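Intended use. Records like the one below are meant for learning the mapping from a protein sequence to its folded structure. Do not use them to infer anything beyond what is encoded.
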Amino acid sequence: MKRALALAAVAAAAVAPAAEAKKVTIALTSVSISAKQNDVTPKGTSKGDTIVYRDRLLNAKAQFGRAKGAAVGADRGTMTFTSAHAATFSGVAVLPGGTLQLEGKVIALPNRSLAIPVTGGTGDFARAKGYVLVGPGTKRALNTYTLTLPEIPVA
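Structure written out for the chain above:
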């Protein structure tokens, strides 16, 4: 009897649908609340300089059950320069349903945009992977999150 139950459990696991990843794109307008720069010696952008950001996030399109332009969250983080032309970022975006962890090397793109890795999250965004594309702008910028969210299997 125990062997039959064990075989049934193995068979059920074998035919259970595999968890599939879900692709999600979130478009937000980031409105700067503050950006505090710390310029260490030598003067000008150099290794060790930091910028601490705080932003309000607005829907760039209707999403999260709210209209375009609605306030839906905030983000904060620190950009740390590793040289005059390279930086890392560490921060978090707080959105309806959870948070997104932003962590890693900042990639500068030709159109004055930046790509920052998304390395995890909480709530609806648990184990999120992907990146956020931060558009050009100092006071307002389009932030486009391109995420892969693992589906949680139903037992």
